[in-house]
Specification:
The protein has 428 residues and is α+β, with helices and mostly antiparallel strands. It has three domains: 48-150, Beta-Lactamase (2-Layer Sandwich), CATH 3.30.450; 169-271; 277-424, Heat Shock Protein 90, CATH 3.30.565. The chain is built from ten helices and twelve strands. It has helices at residues 4-47, 66-71, 94-107, 152-226, 239-271, 285-295, 301-305, 321-342, 371-375, 391-402; strands spanning 51-56, 61-64, 111-118, 124-135, 141-150, 281-284, 307-310, 316-319, 347-353, 357-364, 406-412, 416-424. The chain has a five-stranded antiparallel β-sheet with strand order 2-1-5-4-3, sandwiched between helices. Strands 7-9-10-12-11 form a five-stranded mixed β-sheet. The chain is rod-shaped. The termini are far apart.
Length: 428
């Protein structure tokens, strides 16, 4: 038979057992919750669309998610532990990453920055990185924890957008500049024409006066001669020539005024983009080149002697004489500039007929141009001249394309530059 004391001990023992059972059940529940939390955390880490990692104060990896391990070429997170950024393909930028880590540990504050690095395949990526200090249970900073989101595609899109905006702005600026230049060309051409026509009109009036006076002078000369007086410098054979001078001057002035009007009309339509194939006529190439070389305003006889025209095959083309003469003027001017600048060279012009096209070759041996300049010669604003705009070559390209042909350029830097004009053959 149990005593009261034994009964009390049994009761106390049962209470302890019940308490231990409850504590054990609570511990099992806590372990289960911890396991669930760990599984949830692991699941969260593996499904975050970014690279998650945490490092110690020396920059060694303490842990990461699988995505981070795979991006550096490993199959599991365990293989990454203990390594630093200097062990990964982005070792070239590891110093920058390390500096960012140290800043976070020194300040103890969250930091957001962009970090770039190279992948094992050589591709460069950019990550938007959030870094925060890693602390122990006592609140001491023992490292850094970070998450990086791949924003490479976004950065590339931003770069493309920025480039497109820049190109659009440049195109707008170029278009505006070209429009301003067109307006300036029209205004300047009008002023030049006015300045030329003013002395021409004066000459015309003087010629008209001379026309009135010349018969009287010649009549006096004839009477003097009939009276036996010898007028030095004037013979009877020159009377007809002298009498024709006023008419010849008026005729040349008229042709020059007509030429100025034609130039202004063509120039105006060209700068406005209104000239079309309906404005084109058929010309012989020898005649156009001859006019260009004969009418070009050379500074002196030495400049004229620098141009050698080797007449080859003559051919017809559908075009505008003024525009093509202007194109040759432009090339002659550029070449003479380079010859004077480099103190060497000569201009050679030849014509030839190929199977598919008719060709004019314009070449100078004044030193040529660099490949970078040649590639952009006809786009405008590229020139070898100190004060040039490059618009002349662009207009030559437009002129030849208007004729249904084209112009190309090849050069050997330090030696020569050659422009090849291709004209389509005309149907008989």
């Amino acid at each position: 038979m149990k005593t009261d004391k034994q009964e009390d001990e049994i009761t106390l023992l049962k209470e302890k057992i019940e308490s231990l059972e409850k504590e054990l059940a609570s511990q099992k529940k806590l372990n289960s919750l911890l396991k669930c939390s760990k599984d949830y955390l692991n699941s969260l880490l593996e499904n975050i669309p970014g690279f998650v990692y945490w490092k110690d104060r020396e920059g060694r990896i303490l842990g990461d998610n699988l995505l981070h391990a795979q991006v550096v070429g490993f199959n599991s997170t365990d293989e990454v532990i203990g390594k630093t950024d200097y062990d990964f393909p982005w070792r070239e930028t590891a110093d920058i990453i390390r500096a960012n880590d140290l800043k976070v540990m020194q300040t103890g504050k969250l930091s957001i920055m962009e970090e770039s690095g190279k992948l094992p395949n050589g591709e460069m990526i950019t990550g938007l990185t959030h870094k925060a200090p890693l602390k122990d249970e006592l609140g001491n900073i023992i490292g850094v924890i970070g998450i990086s989101l791949d924003i490479t595609d976004r950065k590339r899109a931003e770069a493309r957008e920025k480039k497109a905006l820049l190109e659009a702005a440049e195109a707008k600026t170029k278009a505006q500049l070209e429009e301003n230049l067109r307006l300036a060309v029209t205004v300047v051409a009008g002023r030049i024409a006015h300045d030329i026509r003013t002395p021409l009109n004066i000459l015309l009036r003087k010629s008209e006066n001379l026309k009135d006076i010349m018969p009287i002078v010649l009549e006096g000369c004839k009477k003097a001669e009939e009276s036996g007086l010898d007028i030095e410098g004037i013979s009877s054979r020159e009377y007809d020539y002298l009498e024709a001078i006023p008419d010849a001057v008026e005729n040349e002035i008229g042709k020059l005024n007509q030429f100025i009007s034609s130039v202004l009309k063509t120039l105006s339509k060209t700068v406005k983009g209104e000239i079309s194939r309906d404005d084109l006529e058929i010309f012989w190439i020898h005649g156009i080149i001859g006019r260009a070389l004969g009418e070009y305003p050379y500074a002196d006889g030495e400049e004229r002697s620098l141009v050698e025209y080797k007449r080859g095959a003559n051919f017809t083309f559908l075009g505008n004489d003024i525009l093509l003469i202007y194109a040759f003027y432009n090339l002659i001017k550029n070449s003479l500039y380079q010859i004077e600048k480099n103190k060497k060279g000569k201009i050679y012009i030849t014509t030839e007929i190929d199977e598919e096209t008719n060709v004019v070759r314009f070449k100078d041996t004044a030193g040529g141009a660099s490949p970078e300049i040649i590639k952009q010669f006809f786009s405008g604003y590229k020139t070898n001249k100190h004060e040039g705009t490059g618009l002349g070559l662009a207009s030559i390209k437009q002129t030849m394309q208007l004729f249904g042909g084209d112009v190309a350029c090849n050069s050997e830097e330090g030696d020569f530059i050659e422009f090849i004009f291709s004209f389509p053959k005309l149907q008989s």
